[in-house]
UniProtKB/TrEMBL annotation:
Full protein name: Alpha-1,4 glucan phosphorylase
Catalytic activity: [(1->4)-alpha-D-glucosyl](n) + phosphate = [(1->4)-alpha-D-glucosyl](n-1) + alpha-D-glucose 1-phosphate
GO MF assignments: glycogen phosphorylase activity; pyridoxal phosphate binding
GO cellular component term of the entry, any: cytoplasm
Root EC class: transferase
The species this protein was found in: Metallococcus carri
Length: 830
């Protein structure tokens, strides 16, 4: 039986708490009970939504004992807990994962069948909780999965956005955003605890006072407040009985807040005030890597961080806990700069509320935090204006000033006379306006700082935070990202999972290095045939879905060439587009005969931030090119372009297992890591990629023969920048590039309207900030090598198998082990 044995604690009911029997009969009994007594309907009258909710609650029952026990163990034990602080969790659908964790897939399927229900329809009923933008949020979801599977105590803290990442639709090829009302039909996966509300203050001013020991103290007199209501989610480990908790906070207006205005007789204003407070958790900001510095976003950040710290200190720790021991009980991992306001918040709790001396509080604080930086783009490093921060969080601004003053004193002592250095390292930037550099605050206030892939960690030390890494080199480390094999292989690619398990046993699911044992099978023709059959079946599954979902009819036998990720110039979707147009131009101009072209189906998936104008123009251009090429008889069945709308985790789980070629084509030095790249390699796609992010490590592991490298290296990019990059030179000197761009500029893909492609074209030819033209030829050459390799199916499949066999390193379980070794158990900083 899966699950621990209760009870472990006096808090739990005496006698074992039995989950329903893990049999088809036991499952049906529990399901019908949930349907009748939970949902209040008879099977014969139930809707698909009733059935989905009852099924979800049934699976929950199997996890409940483990959840209660894990919680009790965490509270009563003295193990260090990881408090993962993340503004985003891109969870994906929960039902499949819960069935997988409990090993109930087959039982549930048969039980539903006997009830006359197709479980696939119930799975499809679930709207995924899209509480994240992309890589950063999905990484958080993979990490909490791995920690539960490894039985590491973890509480994930975040925000319960009422609306997650917008739903993307296309109208006439243009992106239109629709609100994501993922809660509209109710979520069976969350457990609200309104009675555990936490009050969060904002605004107001600070005052000095003298305590009874004659010490001068500061107190914050806030101007307004809101309540945080926790919603708990189960985070089940893979068949190990551990169920950790994800605690997402929802904002609610405080009684006091309402009444004040209500008493003044203005009912409408009182109601508006309520909506104002509840706005805080209303919607996820849809910007990936480019924060807009909006006031509401800072409110969101402080809101969830204040709730989480309070929750841990007041509710998770025993009442009499000695806070000097805090670093022995918790490490708060800061997922990017979004939760960094937690550092001054902990100082405020220790100094203002608990009465610690500054120095002791600071020593405790900086041992309780570790900071992960997920970017190299300067515009992605959050900066808050002093005016805004001081208005919203006046006491925190004072604390930040104090931290800064003491820190700069240290720096001046270490580097006497080097005032420029002190100025460079100040948390407070003076230009263009006085503002707080959150990455600096994070670095100063954390025991460890890590990047997310080797190359980025190096560049983080050398280019983003060079003064800090020089000052405290031991603080900096790397942990290369990973992805959970449970969701991204086992769940997403059942056929491949079965093939692997039949070949090497099932240990790989929790020990992904075991995939190495597949290596010898790359030379086994029988195995290659089975592997290729899995890929083909996955393609057909995807095509069936895209036919129903998007009305796309795609050829069955073409190379599936996939570029899925957020739309951003640095990720260079335009480079992919130039490649497609160049192939097409070759055919229609008669340069290449159609029977010389390796059939390819290109798949794009990408959301653009709603305010990112050029990104939306690029989406329009991709759709225009797709429509033109798909309608052109001259390339029919050979070149096809699909851009299904609303790329999300659910769609990723269908696309990735079907892919032959994984496009990871960012400009070197821009993509911190990438995690899609890992998912593709683990599902047997070959990568065409630059030497960027974790591509570098993928290539090292799978070997140059099994990876298509192209483009400038990061130092070459830097050198070109230094020389002065002029894209027009590339345009003028490369005939193929010229013909490709001219075809786009001519209006060929936009019904003759040149204006419709002008913004993208002009940007490429005149600015090209991410050097698409400079890498164009190298990319085309690499694509020619891809074609040659694909023409030899045995060689291709062999490479694909080796990609799977050699990518075990990219399990998020390994990432978690690295965090444990290098960060969470690391000796405290002095
Ligand atoms: C990022 C980066 C990605 C990275 C991901 C997770 O852009 O390269 O893989 O986080 O670390 N800001 C992000 O979404």
């Amino acid at each position: 039986r899966v699950g621990p044995t209760l009870p472990v604690s006096s808090e739990l009911a005496a006698g074992p708490v039995e989950p329903p029997a893990s049999t088809v009969e036991g499952f049906i009994e529990a399901f019908l009970r949930e349907l009748n007594y939970g949902q209040g309907v008879l099977l014969s009258r139930s809707t698909i939504n009733d059935q989905y909710l009852a099924l979800a609650r049934t699976v929950r029952e199997y996890l409940m004992a483990g959840w209660l026990e894990t919680g009790a163990l965490r509270r009563e034990g003295d193990r260090k807990i990881v408090g993962y602080l993340s503004a985003e969790y891109l969870l994906g659908r929960q039902l499949g994962n819960a069935l997988l964790a409990t090993n109930l897939q087959d039982i549930a399927e048969e039980a539903m069948r006997r009830c006359g229900i197709d479980i696939a329809a119930l799975r499809a009923q679930e709207i995924e909780p899209g509480l994240g933008n992309g890589g950063l949020g999905r990484l958080a979801a993979c990490f909490v999965d791995s920690l539960a599977t490894m039985d590491v105590p973890c509480i994930g803290y975040g925000i319960r956005y009422e609306y997650g990442i917008f739903r993307q639709t296309f109208e006439n090829g243009r992106q239109v955003e629709v609100p994501d009302s993922w809660l509209a039909l109710g979520s069976p996966w969350e457990f609200p605890h309104p009675e555990r509300q936490v009050r969060v203050d904002f605004g107001g001013h600070t005052e000095k006072w003298t305590d009874d020991q004659g010490r001068e103290r500061t107190r914050w007199v806030p101007g307004w407040n809101v309540l945080g209501i926790p919603y708990h989610h189960m985070v089940p480990g893979f068949r190990n009985g551990t169920v950790n908790t994800l605690r997402l906070w929802s904002a609610k207006a405080t009684q006091a807040f309402d009444l004040q205005i209500f008493n003044s007789g203005d009912y409408a204003t009182a109601v508006r005030a309520q909506t104002f407070a509840e706005n805080i958790s209303k919607v996820l900001y849809p910007e990936d890597s480019t924060p807009q510095g909006k006031e509401l976003r800072l409110q969101q950040q402080y809101f969830f961080v204040a709730c989480s710290l309070h929750d841990f200190i007041a509710n998770t720790l025993p009442k009499d806990f000695d806070l000097r021991q805090l670093p022995e009980r918790i490490i708060f991992q800061l997922n990017d700069t979004h939760p960094v306001i937690a550092i001054p918040e902990l100082m405020r709790i220790l100094v203002d509320i608990k009465g610690f001396d500054w120095d002791e509080a600071w020593d405790i604080t900086r041992r309780c935090f570790a900071y992960t930086c997920h970017t190299l783009l300067p515009e992605a490093l959050e900066v808050w204006s002093v005016e805004l921060l001081g208005r919203l969080l006046p006491r925190h601004l004072e604390i930040i000033y104090q931290i800064n003053e003491l820190f700069l004193e240290e720096v001046r002592q270490a580097f006497p006379g080097d005032e420029m250095r002190a100025r460079r390292m100040s948390i407070i930037a003076e230009h263009p306006e006085r503002s707080v550099r959150m990455a600096y605050l994070a670095t100063i206030g954390s025991a460890k700082v890590n990047g997310v892939a080797e190359l980025q960690s190096q560049l983080l030390r050398d280019k983003v935070l060079p003064d800090f890494s020089e000052y405290e080199p031991a603080k900096f480390t790397n942990v290369t990202n990973g992805v959970t094999p449970r969701r991204f292989i086992y769940l997403a690619n059942r056929r491949l999972s079965n093939l692997i398990t039949d070949t090497i046993g099932s240990e790989w699911v929790t020990d992904l290095d075991r995939l190495r044992e597949l290596e010898p099978y790359a030379d086994d023709a029988g195995f290659r045939a089975e592997f290729a059959a899995v890929k083909q079946a996955n393609k057909e599954r995807l095509f069936r879905l895209l036919s129903v979902r998007d009305g796309l009819e795609l050829p069955q036998h073409a190379m599936l060439d996939v570029l899925v990720k957020r739309l951003h110039e640095y990720k260079r979707q335009t480079l992919k587009l130039l490649h497609i147009v160049s192939l097409y131009e070759d055919v229609i101009s008669g340069t290449v005969a159609i029977d010389q072209v390796v059939p390819r189906t290109f798949i794009f998936g990408a959301k653009a931030a709603p305010g990112y104008h050029l990104a939306k123009e690029i989406i329009f251009l991709i759709n225009s090119v797709a429509a033109t090429i798909n309608a052109d008889e001259r390339v029919k069945g050979v070149l096809s372009v699909a851009f299904p709308a609303n790329y999300n985790v659910t769609l990723a789980e269908k696309i990735i297992p079907a892919a032959d070629l994984s496009e990871q084509i960012s400009l070197a030095g821009k993509e911190a890591s990438g995690t899609g790249n890992m998912k593709f390699a683990l599902n047997g796609a070959l990568t065409i990629g630059t030497d960027d992010g974790a591509n570098v490590e993928i290539r090292q592991l799978v070997g140059d023969d099994n990876f298509f490298l192209f483009g400038m290296t990061e130092p070459e990019v830097e050198a070109l920048h230094a020389r002065g990059y002029n894209p027009a030179e590339y345009y003028e000197s490369n005939d193929k590039l010229q013909r490709t761009i001219n075809l786009i500029a001519s209006g060929h893909f936009t019904d003759g309207d040149r204006a419709l492609s002008a913004q993208v074209v002009d940007n490429l030819v005149t600015q090209d900030p991410f050097m698409v033209l400079a890498d164009f030829q190298s990319y085309l050459d690499a694509q020619a090598r891809v074609d040659a390799a694909y023409r030899d199916p045995e060689r291709w499949t062999r490479s694909a198998i080796l990609n799977v066999a050699r990518s075990g390193f990219f399990s998020s379980d390994r990432s978690m082990r690295d965090y444990l070794d290098r960060i969470w158990l690391s000796s405290p900083v002095e």
